[in-house]
Amino acid sequence: MKPSKRVESIDLSGVRKMFDMVGADSINLALGEPDFNTPSHIREAVKKALDENFTHYTGNQGILELREAITHKLKRENKIKTTPESLIVTVGASEALLMATQALIEKNDEVIIPDPGFVSYDACVKLAGGITTPVPVKNEDDFRMTVENVQEKVNKNTKAIIMNSPANPTGGVLEKDDVKGLADIAEDHDLVIISDEIYEKIIYDRKHYSPGRYTENTITINGFSKAYAMTGFRIGYVCATPEIKEAMLKVHQYSTACASSLSQAAALEALTGPQDSVGEMVSEFRKRRDLVVDRLNEMGISVKTPHGAFYVFPKVDDPQLFVEKAIKKGVVLVPGISFGEHGTGHFRLSYAASYPDLVECLDRLESVDI
């Protein structure tokens, strides 16, 4: 018996495929995961919840206290007017993205996505029966998804725009005018912006802007994995208008029922507890970014300084060959083509590894013939 055609139409993540090549002495710079430990006060909150037997199902949308905390956060930091009833706590931002596309996209609807962009965007749209319309995100534009490039791709079949700022795999950050311009396009053409904001707190020399402050035609997706080093907790959230929220709730209810109770307790503490660890982590990421950018440029590998996330997206003549040579030196990278056609000519390096590991990797890469 064969699987469905829509599942056969997508491939396993090129990022995950690189993990199979990790040797005993290899250092993995393909991983999009902070190497920091989850802050102690968050871990203590989980222990407390466990001791209090907070181990049962919660409501489908998540516990009210957490949704209230997210509501305050969105109003205060993102200027998004919402209510706890418009929120669903999800199994990571990944589930939120799948819920959004399943709830919104009809067969043959077109969805504009950044290219290069996070691998799940193309896959989630196709799993929903939609068609992706890639928009080139160019090196010369600081890897920003420009209003002009998006406007060119809008047509009568366009249903949504997926945006990601700060962005994976490039570290690009949208300016205020970019975000407002995309919001205007959504308003003018009655489109929905699906805004992946998982890296919003990992940003340097820039400010984060949410499209949800400019248009209600927005599904805002976020989570706790990156900012609070909580990847294993698999906890995120999605915010939308009542109609779209109800549709997403159906997908959520029949796929996962609710997010883990213990992870929800951890997320509540992450939002309401001390925030010092976030600033400390971002400060360390900035040091690592500067190290990687300086060393790569010294090697003759062209790379722009990213303004967010924890990735660089350097340009080389033959990235596939370079990645293969790097693996032989014990450094695991990801070829840019894994993130879309316009990733050709690039590779992604994650500087979420420790500073000493990055120094060692850069020393090894220096001996790779380019």
Provide a short characterization of the protein structure.
The protein is an alpha/beta fold.
Could you characterize what this model shows?
It is built from 13 helices and twelve strands. The chain has helices at about 5-10, 15-20, 40-50, 65-75, 90-105, 120-125, 145-155, 175-190, 240-255, 260-270, 275-300, 320-330, 355-365, and strands at about 25-30, 85-90, 110-115, 130-135, 160-165, 190-195, 220-225, 235-240, 310, 330, 335, 345-350. The strands form three sheets. It has a seven-stranded mixed beta sheet, sandwiched between helices. Helix 3 packs across helix 10 (about 260-270).
The backbone outline, from C-alpha atoms, is globular
Indicate the proportion of strand residues.
Answer: 5-15%
Quantity of strands, as a count: 12
Corresponding CATH superfamily of the largest domain: Type I PLP-dependent aspartate aminotransferase-like (Major domain)
Q: Looking at the chains present, what oligomeric state does this protein adopt? A: single chain
CATH architecture field of the largest domain = 3-Layer(aba) Sandwich
How do the helices and strands follow one another from N- to C-terminus?
A: HHEHHEHEHEHEHEEEHHHEHEEEH
Please give a handful of descriptors for the protein shown.
single chain; Aspartate Aminotransferase, domain 2; alpha/beta; Aspartate Aminotransferase, domain 1; 13 helices; globular; 370 residues; 2 domains
Strand and helix layout:
Blueprint: H1 5-8, H2 14-19, E1 27-28, H3 40-51, H4 64-77, E2 87-90, H5 92-104, E3 110-115, H6 119-127, E4 131-136, H7 147-153, E5 158-164, H8 176-189, E6 192-196, E7 218-223, E8 236-239, H9 242-255, H10 261-272, H11 276-298, E9 311-312, H12 319-328, E10 331-332, E11 334-335, E12 347-350, H13 355-366
Parallel strand pairs: 1-10, 3-4, 3-5, 5-6, 6-7
Antiparallel strand pairs: 2-8, 7-8, 9-12, 11-12
Helix pairs in contact: 3-10, 4-10, 5-6, 5-9, 11-13
